[in-house]
Amino acid sequence: MPGITREEVAHLARLARLELTDEELEHFAGQLDDIIGAVARVADVAAQDVPPTSHPLPLTNVMREDRVRPSLTARQALAAAPAQEQQRFKVPQILGEE
After folding, report:
1. Could you please report the per-residue DSSP string of 23-69?
2. What 3-state class would DSSP assign to 82?
3. Please, what sign has the CA dihedral across residues 37, 40, 44, 49?
4. 10 burial class (0-12, 13-18, 19+ CB within 10 angstroms)?
5. pLDDT tens across 47-95, in order?
6. Among candidate residues 74, 73, 72, the one with its CA nearest the CA of residue 88
7. Which bin fits 56, alpha (ψ -120 to 50), beta or left (φ > 0)?
């Protein structure tokens, strides 16, 4: 498989609007070539009997039991608010929606 050329890296840099020096172009060309080679080796090793996974070990959510505990009332929570409306914090509109 042919390696990534300096011109291809320069083209990608232009698309990404990155300004790279000549030294960076040469350096990144080698790095990208190494990355593509590593991905190709992984593809060679992948067996048909191994299902695709996102994690090597199963994930389990650890949740604690919900317990009712004393907390602030709405009035206490809003007491120091600079602005409030209908028992809620009032904040400036930022998205232009109503």
Report:
1. HHHHHHHHHHHHHHHHHHHHHHH--TTSPP-SSSS------PPP---
2. coil
3. positive
4. middle
5. 777 777 788 888 888 898 999 999 999 999 999 999 999 999 999 888 8
6. 74
7. alpha
- The single-letter code of the amino acid at 67 is R
Kindly report the pTM of this predicted structure: 0.44
Q: Count CA within 13 A, CB hemisphere, residue 41.
A: 6
Q: How far is CA 42 from CA 30, 53, 61, 87, in A?
A: 19, 14, 29, 56
Distance CA 19, CA 25 (A): 10
d(CA 12, CA 72): 54
